[in-house]
TrEMBL record:
<feature type="transmembrane region" description="Helical">
    <location>
        <begin position="286"/>
        <end position="307"/>
    </location>
</feature>
<dbReference type="InterPro" id="IPR011701">
    <property type="entry name" value="MFS"/>
</dbReference>
<feature type="transmembrane region" description="Helical">
    <location>
        <begin position="319"/>
        <end position="339"/>
    </location>
</feature>
<comment type="similarity">
    <text>Belongs to the major facilitator superfamily. Nitrate/nitrite porter (TC 2.A.1.8) family.</text>
</comment>
<dbReference type="InterPro" id="IPR044772">
    <property type="entry name" value="NO3_transporter"/>
</dbReference>
<keyword id="KW-0812">Transmembrane</keyword>
<feature type="transmembrane region" description="Helical">
    <location>
        <begin position="345"/>
        <end position="366"/>
    </location>
</feature>
<feature type="transmembrane region" description="Helical">
    <location>
        <begin position="125"/>
        <end position="151"/>
    </location>
</feature>
<dbReference type="Pfam" id="PF07690">
    <property type="entry name" value="MFS_1"/>
</dbReference>
<feature type="transmembrane region" description="Helical">
    <location>
        <begin position="95"/>
        <end position="113"/>
    </location>
</feature>
<keyword id="KW-1133">Transmembrane helix</keyword>
<feature type="transmembrane region" description="Helical">
    <location>
        <begin position="191"/>
        <end position="215"/>
    </location>
</feature>
<feature type="domain" description="Major facilitator superfamily (MFS) profile">
    <location>
        <begin position="23"/>
        <end position="438"/>
    </location>
</feature>
<dbReference type="GO" id="GO:0042128">
    <property type="term" value="P:nitrate assimilation"/>
</dbReference>
<dbReference type="GO" id="GO:0015112">
    <property type="term" value="F:nitrate transmembrane transporter activity"/>
</dbReference>
<dbReference type="InterPro" id="IPR036259">
    <property type="entry name" value="MFS_trans_sf"/>
</dbReference>
<feature type="transmembrane region" description="Helical">
    <location>
        <begin position="52"/>
        <end position="74"/>
    </location>
</feature>
Length: 438
């Protein structure tokens, strides 16, 4: 940043341009970690909430799903919004909305304990507040775009792998912690502690988070063409389309967006699905306690899936996202077959570890390819791939539940056939991408 820049006859000093790639990665990761914790919102606490409102199994299912629903679908507009206004503003909107949702949950739970609400009203308010809190989950799409614009193509795997790997650790950590928090500080106390944590993370992001150079230059009055030139002179390779609608349209017209979406539905949608489903699998199929099921799901599965995404990004930089994706889906298929044939706790844990490795590495490989194939609309592509891909977290658990309902207890194991099918399809798509890679 050695040269000053002209801004309508005035100088834009290099000291006015804030941040750097490392700081951008740190800020984006902190924001995503805080927002993504909402995945675990009702998965564990629903066991404390359900008796208060006498909820049916269907009502419980919707309560668990609602944060994922808003968090998944809103990735599409929020991811594309980054291309228009930058990631900092977009992420702040998402995190503040999540905090408002948490406040709504705390107030609603307080009123339920005071018997000030009927069961139907209390349930409706929990659904509404959970939906708003779930907006924090959509920081994945905006965060991917935010971080992508800070880094060159050759380091996208490392940057996005680190961002998503650390951020994805949030559900695992919270799933493991929540059972103990519920015992020690109670349901409302757990939510208050969660809200305080979120508020602190919002403040940290506000203080250290800055948009990539292009957005800062445009905000200071430079014309788009001048901002692009100056940003590239400062080392920024990717620049946005400049419009939310245009970004989504460009990404939708790029045919490779859609294989990547299906592949991400398998690995990341599958990750979310198993974060929800595995506690049921462990307790209903193998008969272990809820606390142990929470540890196995949160620490062994969710945390491993998240953290292995970091080296998965490095491997994708070195051997290409396509090649790493092919290998990772093979591992995922192996884990699925092991689950289908497992009848003991040890065998189930081995299956879980293999599945976690395949899913985590695949997640990194897919998003290594997004900036490569849609460099002119990373925000839009991130929205489509991240948003629609995450819908797998909503679709897969009901399918596995239906198989269990039809087949009885063995169905909890045979339900993993869905991942064999999706894994084979995703591996074929990765082979197609590799054969047509430019």
């Amino acid at each position: 940043m050695s040269k000053d820049m002209r801004k309508e006859g005035k100088l834009v000093k290099s000291s006015d341009i804030l941040g750097n790639p490392g700081r951008g990665l740190m800020a984006g990761t902190i924001a995503f970690f805080a927002g993504y914790a909402a995945v675990a919102l009702f998965g564990i606490t629903v066991h404390s909430i359900a008796p208060l409102l006498h909820l049916t199994i269907v009502e419980i299912g919707w309560l668990v799903a609602i944060p994922l629903l808003t968090g998944s679908l809103l990735r599409i507009p929020f991811g594309a919004l980054v291309d228009a206004v930058g990631g900092r503003r977009t992420i702040m909107i998402q995190l503040l909305a999540a905090l408002i949702g948490m406040a709504g949950l705390i107030l609603t739970l307080h009123l339920i304990y005071l018997n000030s609400l009927t069961a139907s009203v209390g349930y409706a308010l929990l659904m509404l507040s959970g939906a708003v809190a779930g907006i924090g989950i959509s920081t994945f799409a905006s965060g991917i775009a935010y971080v992508s614009y800070w880094f060159p193509q050759r380091r996208q795997g490392y940057a996005l792998g680190t961002f998503a790997g650390v951020g994805n650790a949030a559900p695992g950590i919270f799933t493991a912690i929540l059972p103990f928090a519920l015992v020690s500080i109670g349901l409302i106390g757990s939510y208050i502690a969660w809200a305080i944590f979120l508020a602190i993370m919002i403040l940290v992001f506000f203080l250290i988070g800055h948009d990539a150079y292009y957005f800062q230059l445009v905000r200071r009055g430079l014309l788009r063409s001048d901002a692009i030139d100056k940003a590239k002179a400062l080392g920024e390779e990717l620049v946005p389309s400049g419009s939310t609608a245009r970004s989504l349209a460009i990404a939708a017209r790029a045919w490779r967006t859609w294989p990547l979406t299906i592949m991400y539905l398998t690995s990341f949608g599958g990750f979310e699905a198993l974060t929800e489903w595995l506690p049921t699998y462990w307790t209903k199929y193998l008969g272990i306690s809820l606390v142990l099921a929470g540890i196995l799901t949160g620490i062994v599965y969710s945390l491993l899936t998240a953290l292995i995404r970091v080296p998965g990004g490095w491997w994708s930089d070195r051997w290409s996202g396509e090649m790493v994706a092919i290998v990772s889906y093979l591992i995922l298929i192996l884990g699925s077959v092991l689950f289908m044939t497992s009848h003991s706790l040890i065998a189930g844990i081995i299956s879980e570890v293999v599945m976690a490795m395949g899913m985590g590495i695949a997640n990194a490989a897919v998003f290594k390819m997004v900036p490569k194939y849609v460099p002119e609309a990373v925000g839009g592509a991130t929205g489509w791939v991240g948003g629609l891909g995450a819908v797998g977290g909503l679709l897969i658990p009901p399918i596995m539940a239906y198989i269990a309902a039809v087949m009885g207890k063995p169905g909890y194991a045979y339900g993993f056939i869905i991942f064999v099918i999706l894994g084979i399809l995703s591996m074929i798509l990765a082979l197609i991408l590799r054969s047509t890679s430019r």
